[in-house]
Amino acid sequence: MLPPVPQMTDIAFAVRGDFVPLGYAFPLLQSVAAVLPWFMDEPLAGLLPLRGTHHDQGIWLPRRTKLVLRLPTERLSQARALTGQRLPLESGSLTVGESEVRPHVGHPTLHAHLVATPLDEAGFTAVVQKELSVLGIEGQWICGKHHTLQDGLRTVSGFSLAVHHLKPEQSLRLQQAGLGEARHLGCGIFVPFKAIPNLE
């Protein structure tokens, strides 16, 4: 019997802000948790990585950038307390606008930018195989490059991961459950890809 998985849903907020530093994940999490004090009590909740143009000092954010949270479905209405808030970062801030709910879709290919692990690649792949088996997921997968999140004081490291040839119910289950630790920082959160991504 497969383990039960809570019902999770994404909520995407418009944001105003041109730039975030490379270590933005830690102060952004702190700012979100200050507005949503229950956020850190939800083990599968997380902030999806911000999308933008990377360079050596940080990430430039286009106007279409969204702040996306993966949350238990029953928390969606409470999450709207973020609208209108200014979220301070170590350098600059993000101002949060209106939101839209994004239900998960059973896409055949999913990708996580960073699945957190203290292990080397061989150890990581063994753990991934075991965790996917526990979830009843039989899709093929590819381990990508090593990545780190750090802000000068804290560091979380791991590997990118793509899982493909998923059946719709397996895809939904992986999006609901995720993999690994540091979920609040956006680690181990899977999103659909139209093709197997370049795992950089």
How is the secondary structure organized here?
Layout: E1 8-16, E2 19-21, H1 25-35, E3 46-47, E4 53-54, E5 58-60, E6 66-72, H2 76-79, E7 86-88, E8 93-102, E9 110-116, H3 121-134, E10 140-150, E11 155-164, H4 168-177, E12 191-192
Antiparallel strand pairs: 1-6, 1-8, 2-5, 3-6, 4-5, 7-8, 9-11, 9-12, 10-11
Describe this structure in words.
- This protein is of the alpha+beta class.
- The protein folds into two domains: about 10-100, Alpha-Beta Plaits; about 110-190, Crispr-associated protein, domain 2 (Alpha-Beta Plaits, 2-Layer Sandwich), CATH 3.30.70.1210.
- The chain has helices at about 25-35, 75-80, 120-135, 170-175, and strands at about 10-15, 20, 45, 55, 60, 65-70, 85-90, 95-100, 110-115, 140-150, 155-165, 190.
- The strands form three sheets. A five-stranded antiparallel sheet has the order 3-6-1-8-7. The protein has a four-stranded antiparallel sheet with strand order 10-11-9-12, covered by helices on one side. A three-stranded antiparallel sheet has the order 2-5-4, with no helix packed on it.
- The N and C termini lie far apart (about 35 Å).
